[in-house]
What does this fold into?
Amino acid sequence: MIGELVSGAVFNLNQPAHYVHWHFFDMSVANLAVIIAMLIVFALAVLLPFPGARRRAAARRGESPSATGNEGRASA
It folds into this structure.
């Protein structure tokens, strides 16, 4: 019973949802926020380099890991 009271107090679902209206486009604000967050995460995943990319590139060129500024790390 206490768990029901706590979870019921987190969100008030007894009200109508808010919608974005644009010509023929109708979407709830919550769904739009989730889609925007997914697009931001996707863009960051595409733009940010993978961890260790510099070390692997240096290993392919035959350079030492210290030349890339990764002193103290074990090479893979």
